[in-house]
Amino acid sequence: MARRIPSRYRSYRSLIERGTLKSGDRQRWREWGRTNVEAVATKPVNTQTGSRVKWNRKDLLGLEDLTVEEIELILDTAESFKEVSTRAIKKVPALRGKTIVNLFFEPSTRTRTSFELAAKRLSADVLNVSSSTSSVVKGETLHDTLANIEAMKTDMVVIRHLSSGAPHFLAARCRSSIVNAGDGMHEHPTQGLLDMFTIREKLGRIAGLKVSIIGDIAHSRVARSNIWGLVKMGAHVTVCGPATLLPPDIHKMNVTVASNLREALAGADVVYVLRIQLERQNGKLLPTIREYVRFFGVDKEKMRAAPPTAIIMHPGPINRNVELASDVADGPNSVILEQVTNGLAVRMAVLYLLAGSEVTDETSD
Ligand code: CP
């Protein structure tokens, strides 16, 4: 059995200096990448007071509520976890013994697979439940569904639901940690976090950048999480889209509303294109898709209005040649697949922080 590692020792170096680690432990410590994560999880956030931020929340429901320090903690922790996926054996034992339930009531490719892979790379057990194959189709309530799953002693629930507020409803009633994987038109916090991670990685900072979000803002939980997160982190956010696809209270979100695409693209460091969400639009909010493409579809020609260094982002899935032309989606400035890669590291960080795991004999084996 491995040596017990006292939780007061925060770094690999201090463990070596105190003679707590021997060569076998050193290898184990490296294997599970704990050093970086521990160092990040206790890093000083205020150099004047020396105060340290700790993750104290049971749930991750949205970015509106998080502090700058909490967002930075998640992004810094994700940086440590990104390396795990480059190893030959892409697994660390950080969440061994934990059970994570993916409860998806809406379709998903990226978010569901990314959460499943994140849990598996942290050595957790994973259950995948979709509404179409669960007893929800027989009339079982959301609360009963989760109460029955929790009765099997699960630890965390990742939920995507078509109703805004569903994760908050469960968080207030359940023992498990709840992670919002997208609730209606409200929030998609891990998307916002992975987007901020990607911007920081590609451009070196978030504060002071012009981030232009183009498209269907009104129906987009991705837009809401990004606006709350990016504004909090000091970015200048500009939104642009047809008036019918802008929320009426957009002026309360500390963003600039561009009157046309050219204005939004001028000087943009980040061009963030949103999917047209026809499934959430009740009635005719757009005269025709062709007209939308003409005025708001981002293509190579229109991108001449943006600086040549501007990066292109999209949360996926892309309606190719509607909101985003293929020559831009697949072009040299696109970081769309890097967003997906980073999503895995960010979700590993979120699950890790929510589990609040301690360094113990069990996790260091
Ligand atoms: N970005 C995003 O949420 O994609 P999925 O719907 O495929 O999960």
Per-chain topology:
Elements: H1 12-17, H2 23-31, H3 34-41, H4 68-82, E1 99-104, H5 110-121, E2 125-130, H6 142-150, E3 156-161, H7 166-171, E4 177-183, H8 189-203, E5 210-214, H9 221-232, E6 236-240, E7 256-257, H10 261-265, E8 270-273, H11 289-296, E9 311-313, H12 326-329, H13 336-355, H14 361-364
Phosphoric acid mono(formamide)ester binds at residues 108-111, 182, 188, 191, 315-317.
Describe this protein with a few key phrases.
365 residues; alpha/beta; four-stranded parallel beta sheet; 14 helices; 9 strands; disordered N terminus; disordered C terminus; binds phosphoric acid mono(formamide)ester
Multimeric organization:
single chain
Order of neighbouring strands in the sheet with most strands = 7-6-5-8-9
Distance between the termini: 7 Å
Structural class: alpha/beta
Tell me the β content.
Answer: 5-15%
The level of helicity is: 25-40%
Ligand roster? phosphoric acid mono(formamide)ester
Largest sheet: 5 strands, parallel
Our Rg estimate from Cα atoms comes to 21 Å
What is the helix tally? 14
Number of strands: 9
| Spans where pLDDT lies below 50 across 5 or more residues | 1-22, 42-50, 357-365
Using the alpha-carbon principal axes, give the shape. globular
Mean pLDDT: 87
Succession of helices and strands: HHHHEHEHEHEHEHEEHEHEHHH
